[in-house]
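User: what does the whole thing look like in 3D?
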Amino acid sequence: MNSQVASQVNLVTGSQMLRLLWLIPALPLAGFLLLALFGGRLSRRQVARVGCGSVGAAALITALVGADFLRAFPDRPSYHQMLWKWIDTSEMTVGVSWYLDALSLLMVAVVTGIGFLIHLYSVEYMSGTGEAGVSAPAGRAGEDHQGYARFFAYMNLFVAAMLTLVLADNLLLLYLGWEGVGLCSYLLIGFWYREPEYGAAAQKAFIVTRIGDTAFAVGLFILFTQLKSLSIQQVQTLAAEAWPIGSNVAVIVAVLFLVGALGKSAQLPLQVWLPDAMAGPTPVSALIHAATMVTAGVYLIARMHQLFELAPSVQEVVAMIGLLTLLLAACSALVQRDIKRVLAYSTMSQIGYMFLALGVGAWSAALFHFLTHACFKALLFLAAGSVIHSLGHEQDIFRMGGLRRRLPLTFWTFLIGAAAMSGVPFITSGFYSKDWILWSAWSSPLSHRWIWFGALLGTLLTGLYSFRLLFRVFFGEVRTQPIGEPGVAMRVPLLVLAFLAVTVGFLELPRTLGDLPLFSRYLSHVLPAIETIPGMDKSVEALVQIAVTFSALLGMGLAAVLFLPRATFVDRLAGTSLGRALVIFWRGGWGFDRMYDGLIVRPWLHLTRESGELIDRGYESLAVAAESFHVWLSRTQTGHVRWYAATVAVGALVLLGLFAM
Amino acid sequence: MLTTHALVLAIMLFCIGLVGLLSRRNVLYMLLSLEIMLNAASLAFIAGGARWGQADGEIMFLFILTLAAAEVSVALGIVLQLSYRFQTLDADAFSEMKG
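Assistant: Here's the predicted 3D structure for the full assembly of 760 residues, as structure tokens:
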């Protein structure tokens, strides 16, 4: 009730543009409905217009709403819009209502902005026949008209679900979005459904994330039964009042939420689905499996930060999982052959950094890395898509090479992306975000030295694997002839994202370099400031920065030494028995797939087969019993009228006797 | 007293009818026994109606009369069909519909 009153007050005082908030998720949803219902009847051009336009319009409205929101920002830190009541019982009231604050505005801006660029890119990438004249291989969609509309319908639905997730005012609506993005991820990974292994990858992604989603749902149930509320803001204030720090309930709920986040964000031990998810079209990988959906876990933890602060032990686990994932994934990224799998492992690794930051209490640093990562990883995926596109769907980096002169635009944008990911100092966004995380890992009271050293090793590996990829693909001799640079619709997103991958870093300049904390000041109204242990002054920060810079540059230099000349040393290293075993082990993602296969999948299948017979026997005996009872009972049906009359009379007598008693 | 007598008579009629229904094999006699049982029930209603001075008992009697007429008309039709088909009126001979 209170929230409704508050929303009405807000509606009165809120200015014109903020009221359009509901349109942001509604427009992509409308686009989805239009494409799903009438996609078959629209021409290709119309499909592209609807699919791209709905997200573009949402981005435009986000800009208007954002400008309006920021005009009165520090005085009005949040805006609440109630559309209608979704579930209304005496026990609980859940509304379809949006909540806009600094955090959700950031997420919405990334989802719609980068989402629009990726949609624009897809117009050409998915067209099958681009300007370069590449036709999609047989069996792939894009050749058929329905596939084109289907692709944009799913993508629009994804954007709508993701916006629901980040704008939701209560946890149930958030969960709706959470499941919605999972569904779209499944649909888009298995987009080329004629190939069975792609379908298997889609199912794997769906089932593995389902483990996390189930834990998340259980967490919601516990939260609701304990606190009788699902509103995100209310729940956290209630929890902070009701539960002491480190209490059992808080820890259990935080663990369940964490497992949900791990599944969605492909972190250890639920990370196995992400590399296989690369079966989807490249724009899907860029949008869902790099920029937005996989960071939903980061958003969830940041959103529920008060809850996690009540469970410090869980927060420590978050940091450790982040560290472990970032190191394991970085090693795996080093040895992959498939260009998209390298990027998939690098995504896991970078999200590991975000989790690490969340774990050490550097909430805004995690979100800053989310922002920069969304820009440079989307850029890398789109540039990789451009390479794949021009090579006729070749994804093996050992069959690429020397593309630097043939695809100059792709090369330069990829270079910017790789540089941002490795954290080339001063000029790239990745440097500022990663430096901030490492500084927090050094200076936070929640962190340990070894976490920092692990993260530092991670920066070295990041530089190594990103530049290995760059050198393998764009340097050396030409192995596959490219067809040529992509058309305008693919070039524009590449250029815009390259620009962003450089410039968004300047939103937060550290104390040692200009001291301009715009981003942390902006988020300080939602997320608590990062604590530092005493004695951490500028000179220490400068030393940490130098260490990070040095480590990243060392990684890049190492890559240049190892892979730029004909890479004979590396080949010899990989040729030794130990090297070969390590390559196979890392390429397979540290044997997690095989472990799960042996520990869970196979025993489970065995169990179902064995116990199936046992259980069947139980049901069969039930059927036999029923049949014999029926035979016995049917004997009373003699067909003799007098017998029936006698039984009726006796029955009546018995009944009378019973009533008389 | 009158009520008691009437009810005793009704019970006796009912028992006679029931015994006749169970012991007679001829379908026609079974129908006769049924009629006796119906009349026993009617008599009980009439007795009740007279005892409490209510018209309900007589109304129930009229209902039972109608029911008996309808039942006899249908039953005699069935008996006719049975005797055509089985050439007998022995109820035990008609046991086609056993389970």
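In plain terms: Chain B is about 80% helix and 0% strand. Chain B touches chain A through 14 residues (CB under 8 Å).
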